[in-house]
Amino acid sequence: MARTRPEPVGVRALGTAGLAVTAAGILGNGLAYVAPVLAARQLDAADLSALATALGLIAIASVPGFGLQLAVAVHHARHGHSDTRRAALVTATLCAGALVAATPLLTTALRLPVEVSILSAVTTAAVVLSCRPLGELQGGQRFVRLAVGMVLLAAGRYGGVLVGLLLGLGLTGSLLLGAVSAVLTPLALAALTRPTTATAAPTAPPLGAGRILTGCGATLAMLVVSYADLLLARQLLPAGDAGAYAVGTVLTKGALWAPQVATVLALPRLARGDRRSRTVALALTGACGLLLVLASASAGGLAFRLAGGPDYTHLGGYAPLFAAVGALYAVVFVLLNAAVAAGVRWPAAPLWAGSVVLVVTALSIAPRTVAGLLWCALGTAVVMTLAMAVRAWATPPRAGQPASPDAHDQG
């Protein structure tokens, strides 16, 4: 059966998709926030620390899964539906295997029970496997189903743990129930990715390991650069200033992730060389960032009060600077995804270079104050954004690729 391009997506359909994906992201982040809050009320200090550590390990070890999602989405948008299950299985095995191999180290260095490490590995494998169908849905522009899939993944990742805590099952019981719910998630997502039209046997080229590594590298680079200043604050600043900086980074993360729905919706078209989609995504992301910076400038004290409480209200003057760092990183995120979609070699290189510059500058010449580190982070973000923008406009658009037969289906 001949592959055809997707029908143009209407403004109303994009609006519905954007609202659905945004709501799904908010719900997922909400569940991630509720888990440690509930654990603090149900577990003693030792078990609470162990649970928080386990959830952190799962988050770190699952990063390649979101790189896999990015790679699958780009591959699907270019070539249509193809069998990417083997690539997902290999990625999940490597991620979970790394945790299993590290069990002796985790047991001694972090004082984690062996069963906690093993259950974390099982959950990690399930999360990574779940990212493959999400990539298929994103690449096929089935955004409403993508939103449903995001909710299912969040529920599978945290729902079992929450239920275990509510039932008083303790640390191991809650993680065990969480692993069970996570393992069921890929099965539930499989129903969402069924093609809506009959298709012939896939003829697309296989998804290569290089593409997955590129997606993983890009995802990891974005994670590192967005947390580098927070880690530096912990190392370089006095305890009180480090805490204040941590509160400020809440505003940074808000400005970074608030407009990410634009990138999610634009990625399939970016993979087919549609520069107009890149321009629209950049415009929306930049406008959102500007609004957040202006809002922080006019209500900085309130922003810090909401982020950290009344003890941090006096830091309101720094609010627009923290928001500006996040807003610039949001633009970088759009450009990074566009580079991955365009097949640029080493798409995350400017981010790794920027991270090194930030660390060297902060350690060598930046004043050991909140303002000194913040201005260093802002300057690095500006340079990084300019470097990504120059490379983006110097990169020729990729020739259009065939699209999947079901790419027009928004549901």
Detail the topology: elements first, then pairings:
Layout lengths: L10 H32 L2 H17 L1 H17 L5 H17 L1 H7 L4 H26 L3 H24 L3 H23 L16 H28 L2 H19 L2 H11 L4 H24 L1 H9 L10 H23 L7 H16 L5 H25 L17
Protein name: Polysaccharide biosynthesis protein
Keywords: Cell membrane, Membrane, Transmembrane, Transmembrane helix
Membrane topology: Multi-pass membrane protein
Annotation keywords:
2 domains, globular, mainly alpha, 16 helices, Polysaccharide biosynthesis protein, disordered C terminus, 411 residues
Shape: globular
- Runs in which pLDDT lies below 50 for 5 or more consecutive residues are 1-8, 197-201, 399-410
Q: Which strand-content bin applies to the residues?
A: under 5%
Topology, number of strands: 0
The amount of helix comes to over 70%
Radius of gyration: 21 Å
N- to C-terminal distance: 22 Å
Q: How would you spell out the order of helices and strands?
A: HHHHHHHHHHHHHHHH
Average predicted local confidence, pLDDT: 86
List the quaternary state of the chains. single chain
Largest sheet: none
**Number of helical runs?**
16
Structural class: mainly alpha
The number of distinct structural domains comes to 2
Transmembrane segments: 49-75, 87-106, 112-131, 143-167, 173-192, 212-232, 244-267, 279-303, 315-336, 348-366, 372-394
Protein name: Polysaccharide biosynthesis protein
Subcellular location: Cell membrane
Keywords: Cell membrane, Membrane, Transmembrane, Transmembrane helix
